[in-house]
């Protein structure tokens, strides 16, 4: 039962911060969206992505080992708080982060550029 709650919590965290590549904004065409993005925004998303990945790696085992639902909730809240801090440090919120991820996933060139920035950030860490 604890394992199910753990995976459910991790899934929720993943959905919030790592949207599906199939999610595309309907109000603009990919060309319009691409013009809205610049390299600094992609680098910021890459930094946040790597930070969130580390947070998930840190808190997933703790969440799995939680002995009570209350302890699990506390761990989940702490992880969410740290993810929010990562976004805030880069001047973003969940909506702007998701929007940039969606735009990049809809454009092969942007996706490759973002993945390159993510790899750079991982090497720095």
- Number of helical stretches of at least 4 residues: 6
- Report the biggest beta sheet as strand number plus sense, adding barrel if it closes: none
Reading the helices and strands in chain order gives: HHHHHH
**Parts with pLDDT < 50 across at least 5 consecutive residues:** 19-35
Count of domain modules: 1
- Average residue pLDDT: 81
Instruction: Tell how many strands the DSSP assignment holds.
Output: 0
Structural class: mainly alpha
What does this structure look like?
- The protein is an all-alpha fold.
- It has one domain (2-124).
- It is built from six helices and no strands.
- It is elongated, with a radius of gyration of 16 Å.
- It starts with a helix and ends with a helix.
Name the features.
125 residues, 0% strand, mainly alpha
Short characterization:
The protein has 125 residues and is mainly alpha-helical. 81% of the residues lie in helices and 0% in strands.
Which helices and strands appear, and what pairs or packs with what?
Layout: H1 2-17, H2 30-36, H3 39-65, H4 69-89, H5 94-106, H6 108-124
């Amino acid at each position: 039962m604890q394992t199910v709650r753990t995976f459910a919590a991790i899934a929720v965290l993943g959905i919030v911060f790592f949207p599906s590549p199939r999610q595309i904004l309907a109000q603009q065409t990919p060309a319009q969206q691409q013009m809205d993005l610049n390299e600094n925004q992609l680098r910021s998303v890459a930094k946040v992505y790597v930070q969130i990945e580390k947070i998930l790696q840190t808190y997933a085992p703790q969440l799995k080992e939680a002995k009570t639902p209350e302890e699990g909730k506390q761990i989940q809240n702490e992880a969410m708080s740290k993810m929010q801090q990562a976004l805030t440090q880069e001047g973003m919120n969940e909506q702007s982060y998701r929007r940039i991820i969606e735009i990049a996933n809809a454009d092969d060139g942007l996706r490759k550029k973002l993945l390159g920035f993510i790899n750079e950030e991982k090497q720095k860490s």
